[in-house]
Automatic annotation (TrEMBL), chain A:
InterPro entries: SusD-like_N, SusD_RagB_dom, TPR-like_helical_dom_sf
Gene Ontology terms: cellular component: cell outer membrane
The family this protein is said to belong to: Belongs to the SusD family.
Protein name as annotated: Outer membrane protein
Keyword Endoplasmic reticulum recorded: no
Lineage: Bacteria, Pseudomonadati, Bacteroidota, Sphingobacteriia, Sphingobacteriales
Compartments in which it is found: Cell outer membrane
SusD-like N-terminal domain residues: 49-226
Source organism of this protein record: Arcticibacter svalbardensis MN12-7
Domain RagB/SusD: residue ranges: 265-481
Length: 503, 1032
């Protein structure tokens, strides 16, 4: 009898256990303390934090800057050997194919930027859980978001021409292979729309230096208009920046590129890098807070006394002699833009400087604007240089305004000269080098000045393409093909996009 | 009245009985056998012999059949017709595997009733090898198991059961005394404590493990005590010395100087070494880093039992120093304490406690990269003297004036390597067994593993040499601006348990139809957490003070990593139901059916549970009446088919990640800084796939077991064919989706088939000479049959660096898993005319490698890359040979691996790094050589001769004499009556390796995608050892 009870009780227990067991394998991400999309964007701080990460891909576009010079006549890829940094060598040598890991990464990260922005715009009025979160300054904050989307698309359109365009949402796996390339003009329309939306709400100053301001948006819009040959509109929007008197040219050109010169009076927009947050992922060299291209520019094995300011690097992105020769005597920008290592060594015997000659495509010249300097990196030293990219300097705003005025439907060459000569006056420290030309020769003077002023800042190749000078200036450049880079082969294979002509 | 009645019944029961008594001994030695079972056949009546081997049993007066059995002995059946004295002498049954029992999932099975595929390795074979890890004993001894060993002390080998189903997650599950554990847990099992290892290979035997069984199951049974047995002590000691078996030929200083000069001058550069005659032979860095290292293991165990309980107690210590850097820098130490206890709480209630505590201590060095210790020794400048002689510079060891980054003096590197890891693992089980009915037993088992681990790494400030980019210390001993030393601690704590309850019911229908059934459920959870802290500025830059408490770093606006902390936790949960029916008719016709239903916390909401079924059939032809052969003693045909799974998944969800840098595969970082002040950011960091499920495997197996020629030969052979579907792959997705990781889906599949054979041959040549041979043969062919929808997905192995970051192994559709992918070579260009005539190959000049235009499009492009090798062997062979002559015993174990290729990836190929000697055969002008392995040498390498190509692929087939052992057992007379036996032996492990491979060792272990890529792998040491085995 007793036994029967035990067995019965046992059976009941067994069935109960079996029945309740199913819950054992249920899973909620909260069990792992994971914050999901449904938990997020529920406060102002969530929005603020997410917008920070919409800035992040700006840093990842790092290699567009060396490419902007390497693809032009300004610099050569260099590196250790012919088989080092192949993606950049192929850009340099115009042996470019659609299989190029650097270009593929730049394509992908620009789109990550677009997706991050889209997620924010998609959840602006209502979050994923369907709630509305309002706070003071939300609109102004979204000004930054619109700017960023414009910036990412501007990069895409400059590099690849027609590209897939989407603004409604962050894409999901089900959206894979659904898009086609939109005409360049449509992409520019969207960029203008985003920038105008940004200008409408952005403040003129930000408490945090490095945040996007209204002037940054206006300056970028001015540049976009130049790329669209909309000179009247460019002139108007750039005039706003100039007349605001918010910016001035720094008299010591060199100081702009020192750590102390970051976010200075000439800075309209800088992509921020820092050595304060060391990063060590060789699987994604550009995805930290440090500026990877600085290490690339460095002089191999440079060493000397403690007060010798430079640190060693990889001898890439070496300025050409032709660039060096483009500067006139007395132009303070030459030595700031280009370091002639032998000349430097001779001029500073006290440093006891030694270095290894660049082993491949040596020019003896280095990109002084962004050379690695001692004490400016941390952790994994190669990946953490603090140097900001001076993406939009006031000097460029002036040169853009000059060009816009010169090329406007009703040209104003004297205004153009005025802006141009502000830049030249700073360069030479006198009025003796002012330009007095007008018309087409003034246009050419402005274009040439852009090269001298912005060399090694990643603008040259795109500028040459924009102004139609590329085929005449760049060896190996094929008109009708090399104005844009090839769409990454992987994207063509997967998404069925069309390739750019000639690739 | 009642008592009287009871007595009456008893009286009745015994009135027709007579008493049988006597002694049970071992035939060969005459030793008594305590704990032997003496029972009446087909009745549940019996007894065990006492400590003196005596038994006493009541038997029916009209006679019956008595069965006498003892583990490891052939049972005896004898008809008895009267009471009185009857002694039995049992013979060892090792020669006849047919009487053995194998341990399977949730039960045991007589070998003759098995219709699945199982390989078994027993304690004697394991002990002969004196392995550090028990997997070593499976290599070549268990057919169907492929083991690729690692040389690093205590490191896990690659273990594959029946082919390569996937690119990761291929580890078989390990069941220790019924409790599930993992392959990594082999680091803490004392091989001396193992009674047997059964490897379950086919669907019939693994399906009861369902979603855990897909990669095969290794069932480990540890030793237990025996009831009514006097305590038996066993003491083993083994001491050995390890050495590196061979060195790799690299250039000496003068040769190096000449090559560097040639490389520089041919690239238009300067002569680097002006006077080669001064260089001499220089330093061979390999000789500096390899040291002879000790290896020892000591064990003591006691086993025995009383009437109501039995016990096995053991303690062991193993210490293996590393041959790279010596015991100071690379070592593995293990202490084991085991108690396996069985109690009869009540006549029908049994309680089993197994508990093992393991203490682990290890130190490691940087391995498997060109800048590891071995990589540095191979690549570092040989002109540098061992010790630093440069005035006014700190640093004990010499430095190079030409290699200024990446590769360092290996001794400097070794000297500045400081880490240690201590672990404590407690594992075992509690089990209750209750006999509800005569043949119905319910078992409830709680198996657990508790592992805690504590590690510390110190990264000191180092002066690597003048102008060295990676210096954190200046030549004068001061700290480089912004550099800090650092100490990092990590503590992990893991707790895994499985609670299983199942009922075994054995019954028969009409005498000859036997059924063995099991039904039960299992709940499992693995969980753990880890925390870590690191701090900069350790006082005096010294290991002595390398502790968080002594370091002084504090975070500041410009240095956020002076003091860091981290933490994570994880868990996994499973729920399973299972059942099995085994049937046999007179052990002649055998059938088995298994079902398992598995749920996992990780499966998507649409796929919470999976069902797995398998069945098998066996036919013992030799039991048929028509079968009449004097040659064949036993013949069984077996076949099985069924489904199993693999749970290589983790739950998926749409996560918002907040923070900074991301170290995941897509480096989907967060955060930004404004004016050098960092702000964390957030973004969508993952996506979910609600259909996520298990990998499904279908496996068919056919085989036979054959014993012939007076039971001297036994042969088992199996052919298997398996298809794995639902391998986890990342679907190929448009790049414009960005860098948020794409969720994986069950979209890949592979096919494998192969043959496992084991053959043994035993011969008693004379009473004093016994010969024992066993052979195994393992082969498999594998193919990836699907990946993502368009078949474009490629899973690459880890990259290696030889001036460019390269990957060589790939897992992709239409190929064998982890094959080598690269360019094929077709000799060297001898002249400019040849270059011009050949398909366009940018940068090529005479002396450069001519790559094959495999797609014949007239140009050498990335599309010309093809299969250039396969790291996995076509087949492996094991041969265990042993012979005993009187008191001497000799054994040899030989292992061969055929068809495995090795990719040589330890050469850095820097302008100034050292080169392997083959560069001396280089092309120096038309006609000098046309061997693609020896192109011209030039710094700039415009042809990219260093790209991944068959230039670096070598045949890694090998034959290894893995173990040679000669032992001598002292005659009893010399034992002084105290000892049961004393045996001494000498041993050489990894005595000889026959291979064409030019590196240290052709066994290069790793994950599926890293196996066979030699980035300077830690070579397996040769060990000279002697040992002592005592029983008392």
């Amino acid at each position: 009898m007793k036994n029967t009870y035990i067995k019965l009780a046992g059976l009941v227990l067994f069935i109960t256990v079996l029945g309740s067991c199913k819950k054992w394998v249920d899973y909620n991400p909260h069990d792992d303390f994971k914050v999901t999309d449904l938990d997020y964007l529920k406060s102002e701080s969530d929005y603020q934090t997410m917008i920070i990460s919409a800035y992040t891909p700006l840093q990842w576009l790092n290699q567009t800057v060396p490419i902007g010079d390497i693809a032009s006549e300004n610099s050569v890829a260099g590196g250790e050997t012919a088989s080092d940094i192949l993606p950049l060598q192929q850009i340099d040598d115009y042996t470019l194919t659609p299989v190029n890991s650097t270009l593929e990464d730049l394509w992908r990260v620009a789109y990550e930027g677009v997706n991050r922005v889209n997620y924010l715009t998609q959840n602006k009025d209502k979050n994923k859980a369907g709630e509305t979160v309002d706070f003071d300054g939300k609109e102004a904050l979204y000004g930054e978001v619109y700017f960023l989307r414009a910036y990412y698309y501007f990069n895409l359109v400059k590099m690849f021409g027609d590209v897939p365009l989407f603004t409604d949402k962050r894409l999901e796996l089900s959206d894979s292979r659904t898009l086609t390339r939109s005409p360049k003009a449509d992409v520019y329309t969207q960029i203008e729309l985003d920038l105008n939306n940004a200008i409408a709400v952005l403040p003129t100053t930000q408490a945090q230096k490095g945040r996007i301001t209204k002037y940054a948006a206006q300056a970028l819009l001015g540049k976009v208009y130049l790329y669209e040959n909309k000179f009247d509109e460019a002139s108007t929007v750039l005039e706003n920046v100039i007349t605001s008197n918010a910016f001035s040219l720094v008299s010591d050109f060199n100081s702009i590129f020192l750590a102390t010169g970051e976010n200075g009076p000439e800075s309209v927009f800088e992509i921020q890098y820092t050595n304060g947050s060391p990063y060590s992922n060789w699987g994604g060299q550009t995805r930290g807070q440090g500026n990877y291209s600085v290490q690339q520019n460095g002089i191999r094995g440079i060493s000397g006394s403690a007060d010798m300011p430079y640190a060693a690097g990889w001898s890439s992105n070496l300025p050409t002699k032709e660039l060096a020769n483009a500067y006139s005597a007395g132009d303070q920008r030459k030595d700031v833009t280009i370091m002639d290592i032998e000349a430097y060594k001779a001029a500073h015997p006290q440093y006891g400087l030694t270095y290894q000659v660049a082993p491949y495509k040596n020019t003896g010249l280095y990109n002084q604007k962004y050379l690695p300097r001692k004490g400016e990196t941390s952790g994994q030293v190669e990946l953490n240089y603090l140097n900001n990219f001076r993406t939009l300097r006031y000097a460029e705003v002036l040169l853009m305004a000059a060009e816009a005025n010169n090329r406007a439907s009703k040209p104003n060459d004297s205004k153009a000269q005025g802006y141009l000569n502000q830049v030249r006056r700073r360069a030479f420290g006198d009025d003796l080098h002012n330009i007095t030309a007008t018309g087409t020769s003034l246009k050419q003077a402005i274009w040439d000045e852009r090269r001298l002023e912005l060399a090694m800042e990643g603008d040259r190749f795109f500028d040459l393409v924009r102004t139609g000078q590329a085929a005449t200036k760049i060896t190996g450049f094929q008109a009708g093909k090399n104005e844009v880079f090839p769409i990454p082969q992987k994207e063509i294979d997967i998404s069925g996009l069309t390739q750019n002509p000639g690739y | 009245m009642g008592i009287a009645l009871l007595l009456c019944f008893v009286g009745t029961a015994y009135s027709q009985s007579v008493r049988l008594y006597g002694k049970v001994t071992q035939k060969s030695t005459g030793e008594v056998l305590p704990g032997a079972s003496v029972s009446i056949k087909n009745a549940q009546m019996g007894t065990l012999t006492d400590a003196a081997g005596n038994y006493s049993l009541l038997i029916p007066a009209n006679g019956t059949t008595i069965t006498v059995s003892f583990i490891g002995m052939a049972p005896i059946e004898r008809k008895v017709t009267q009471g009185g004295v009857l002694n039995f002498a049992l013979d060892e049954s090792a020669d006849n595997i047919l009487n053995e029992v194998v341990v399977i999932g949730y039960g045991t099975q007589k070998v003759t009733k098995v219709s699945g595929a199982i390989s078994t390795v027993r304690s004697a074979e394991i002990q002969k090898l004196t392995p550090v890890r028990a997997e070593e004993a499976l290599q070549g001894q268990a057919a169907g198991v492929t083991v690729v060993q690692s040389g690093s002390p205590g490191a896990a080998p690659t273990v594959l059961i029946r082919g390569i189903p996937s690119f990761s997650g291929t580890d078989p599950v390990v069941i220790i005394d019924g409790s599930p554990q993992s392959l990594t847990d082999f680091n803490s099992i004392n091989p001396n404590d193992i009674e047997s290892i059964n490897v379950l290979k086919d669907a019939a035997t693994t399906a009861i493990f369902g979603v855990k069984g897909g990669n095969g199951v290794i069932v480990v049974t540890t030793k237990t005590g025996k009831k009514n047995q006097k305590t038996e002590f066993a003491i083993n000691a083994n001491f050995g010395v390890q050495e590196v078996p061979r060195y790799i030929g690299v250039l000496n200083a003068a040769e190096y100087g000449a090559i560097v000069n040639e490389g520089s001058v041919s690239s238009g550069g300067n002569t680097i070494f002006q006077d080669l005659s001064q260089l001499g032979t220089g330093t061979n860095w390999q000789k500096e880093i390899f040291h002879n290292a000790p290896m020892q293991s000591h064990n003591i165990s006691a086993r025995g039992g009383s009437d109501k309980m039995s016990y096995f107690l053991s303690a062991g210590y193993l210490g293996q120093g590393g041959i790279v850097g010596g015991t100071d820098k690379s070592t593995f130490d293990r202490g084991n304490f085991t108690a396996n206890l069985n109690f009869d709480l009540a006549p029908k209630l049994k309680f089993i406690v197994n508990a093992t505590d393991v203490i682990l201590l290890s130190k490691g060095i940087l391995e498997n990269s060109f800048n590891s210790i071995i990589g540095s020794a191979l690549n570092f400048d040989p002109t540098v003297p061992v010790f630093n002689t440069v005035p006014n510079t700190v640093g004990k060891y010499g430095f190079s004036n030409v290699i200024l980054s990446e590769v360092f003096n290996p001794l400097t590197k070794l000297d500045n390597t400081y880490n240690q890891n201590t672990g404590n693992k407690l594992y075992g089980k509690f089990e209750l067994q209750y006999d509800i009915l005569k043949a119905l037993k319910v078992s409830s088992r709680f198996g657990y593993t508790k592992y805690d681990d504590n590690s510390k790494t110190f990264t000191p400030l180092v002066f690597y040499g003048l102008n060295n980019v990676n210096n954190t210390m200046n030549a004068d001993g001061t700290t480089v601006d912004g550099a800090h030393n650092n100490v990092a601690h990590t503590k992990t704590s893991n707790f895994n348990y499985t609670w299983e309850t199942f009922a075994n019911y054995n019954f028969k229908v009409k005498e000859d139809h036997h059924f063995e059934t099991v039904l039960g459920f299992s709940l499992a959870k693995t969980s753990g957490n880890a925390d870590g802290a690191s701090r900069q500025d350790v006082p005096y830059n010294s290991w002595e003070f390398a502790d968080f408490t002594a370091a002084t770093g504090t975070n500041s606006a410009t240095n956020s990593t002076a003091l860091t902390g981290n933490y994570y936790q994880y868990f996994r949960k499973n729920l399973s139901y299972f059942g099995r029916v085994n049937y046999d008719y007179r052990e002649r016709y055998i059938a088995s059916f298994t079902a398992r239903r598995d749920g996992s916390y990780a499966f998507g909401t649409n796929n919470k549970f999976g069902n797995f079924y398998s069945g098998s059939l066996g036919w013992v032809i030799s039991s048929e009446s028509f079968f009449n052969s004097s040659f064949v003693d036993y013949l069984k045909l077996r076949g099985s088919y069924g489904s199993i799974g693999n749970e290589n998944v983790s739950p998926q969800y749409v996560q918002v990640v907040t923070g900074g840098p991301d170290y995941g595969s897509t480096a989907n970082s967060n955060g930004y800084n404004f004016n050098n002040v960092f702000y964390p950011g957030s973004t969508i960091g993952s996506a979910a796939n609600n259909d996520l499920a298990w990998e499904k495997q279908l496996q068919a197996n056919i085989g036979f077991d054959l014993t012939f020629y007076k039971n001297k030969f036994s042969l088992s052979a199996d052919y298997f064919d398996k298809t794995v579907n639902g391998l986890l792959f990342t679907p190929s997705a448009s790049l414009y989706l960005g860098t948020a990781p794409i969720p994986t889906a069950n979209i890949g599949s592979t096919k494998s088939n192969g043959v496992d054979v084991s053959l043994s041959y035993n011969e008693k040549i004379s009473p004093s000479v016994r010969l024992n041979n066993s052979f195994t043969f393992t082969s498999s062919k594998n193919k990836v049959t699907a990946t993502n929808s368009d078949g474009t997905a490629k899973i690459y192995g880890n990259s290696y660096f030889n001036g460019q970051s390269q990957t060589v192994t790939v897992f992709e559709k239409g190929q064998t898993p982890g094959y080598f992918y690269g360019y094929k070579t077709e000799g060297l260009f001898q002249s400019t005319a040849e270059v011009t005539a050949a398909p366009t190959q940018s940068g090529a000049q005479p002396g450069d490698i001519r790559f094959a235009d495999t797609n014949q499009d007239g140009a050498i492009t990335a599309d010309d890359q093809v299969k250039i090798g396969d790291p996995f062997p076509q087949f492996t062979l094991g041969w265990n040979f042993s012979v005993t002559y009187k008191k001497f015993d000799f054994s040899a174990f030989t292992y061969a691996s055929v068809g495995n290729d090795i990719y040589r990836a330890y050469e850095r190929n820097g302008n100034y790094t050292n080169k392997v000697r083959s560069v001396l055969n280089r092309w120096t002008g038309p006609g000098t050589t046309n061997d693609a392995r020896y192109p011209r040498y030039i710094f700039t390498d415009p042809n990219n001769n260093i790209r991944v190509s068959d230039r670096y692929v070598e045949d890694g087939s090998f034959v290894k004499i893995k173990n040679l052992q000669l032992g001598y057992t002292f005659p009893k007379a010399l034992n002084g009556g105290v000892f049961k036996s004393i045996r001494v032996y000498g041993q050489v492990k990894n005595a000889f390796t026959f291979t064409k491979y030019s590196g240290y060792d052709p066994e290069i272990s790793g994950g599926i995608l890293n196996t066979g890529v030699d980035q300077g792998a830690y070579p397996i040491s040769r060990i000279y050892a002697f040992g002592l085995d005592i029983r008392l």
